[in-house]
């Protein structure tokens, strides 16, 4: 190319970074920087324009003469190779361009596919002419993306705060176990799913003596250790709820066999009877357990099961504590439960 042609191409690179310059034979002699970026793996220079791009409108164009006849006409094109990019274009004949003869300039754009093109080819505002409205669209897209990302992060924080609030509302702050609200939620779910379960009412024996002799700080420590020991016995799907000072309700999901219930109760009692150290002093407690099975009711009712488990707990206390009693109808003749 002559100096004047180089100057022309440099000017086009700045004003129309998605252009191609064609010689009289319809070959690409120069491509704008954005097209060179997009087709970096398939260089355009030296190739026939109509072999690289399919002219979809107007149709029937097969040579350079036909292309030049499209001077000033709106073009619809598609790249023949992968990626099969759809493009818009406008062709301008160059009858007087030095060394190009009867060449042409074709200015291309992505049209409505610009968003996908920006994403697929990592394009930025620098790949478009400063007067191209695409730059404003890119700005809006970036602003929208930034706003959506900020909204996403805010939603995540709100969701986290909501989950934390929900967990706090369902958690006993001293032991980390569930509270009465958590118990109600689990029982409602079990009632709706009609899933069998065992319900235990566990009371810590001799806990009052710990509080009276060593103080409430020691008592809090004992409750925390007792909670962890009970968790170590039960399964992940089971629930332990602190319903009072030293009272707990345990839900054992899917457990219906009396033998397994008794085995679990004995393991709980054995773990609770292990001495708990506090400031070099042994705190000794035990556990009394009253239990009932949902499969023992024609239509299980949580309130009734809790009341029956409480009667069974009273019977366990009456038998000397540190034992487990399964509810039976004859226990209804017993009196109300008593403190530790």
Automatic annotation (TrEMBL):
EC number: 4.6.1.2
Keyword terms, alphabetized: cGMP biosynthesis, Nucleotide-binding
Top-rank EC class of the record's enzyme: lyase
Top-level taxon in the UniProt lineage: Bacteria
Single Gene Ontology MF annotation: nucleotide binding
Keyword Transmembrane annotated: no
Listed InterPro entries: DGC-Regulatory_Protein (IPR052163), GGDEF_dom (IPR000160), HNOB_dom_associated (IPR011645), HNOB_dom_associated_sf (IPR042463), Nucleotide_cyclase (IPR029787), Rev_trsase/Diguanyl_cyclase (IPR043128)
Protein name: guanylate cyclase
Species whose genome carries this gene: Roseovarius azorensis
